[in-house]
Amino acid sequence: MSAQSKHVFSKILTVTDIKKRLAVPSAIQHSLPPFNGGHTVTFQFLYGTRPWPIRYTIRRKGYKKPVFSGKLWKNFVIYDDLNVGDRFILYIGQGEDGSSYYGVKVGREIHFFGIPQGVQMQWAKAMALVIMNMRLQKHIPRLLIVVIKAFCDNPLLHMVLS
């Protein structure tokens, strides 16, 4: 995203997002093109240097669940090799001429020993609690603390271990 961009939403992609549709948070509907009384809008977002048309829909009845769906979404997923666990980021950018556009970034989640970063953070919080409890009881030798710090690049654990 450029300095002149506004984050709209981001999401870690799930199996449903990859195989069927991407659920869009209802709270950000005001940032997307209006439906003007309908239930489907096709608009474009820029991914890299390529514009992608995307079908944005809501249900006709009941809860108006917004999604990116259909062949256009599937084409984007397949062509750009999106995978479960990738982070999808939608933003509004500003062109050199002052016009606005929708843009997308897709980032691979960082894995450490095959564990996604989000899970690593949950693990780190749990480990921090265990380590704090063990330190209170003087059960962690100093050498083990040094080894944990060396192999775990997590600020929360570093803080607890200091």
From TrEMBL:
SUPFAM superfamilies assigned to the protein according to its UniProt record, in alphabetical order: DNA-binding pseudobarrel domain
Gene Ontology molecular functions: DNA binding
Source organism, top-level taxon: Eukaryota
Alphabetized Gene3D superfamilies for the sequence: DNA-binding pseudobarrel domain
Cellular compartment(s): Nucleus
Record keywords: DNA-binding, Nucleus, Transcription, Transcription regulation
GO CC field: nucleus
Chief location: nucleus
Protein name: TF-B3 domain-containing protein
Source organism (scientific name): Gossypium armourianum
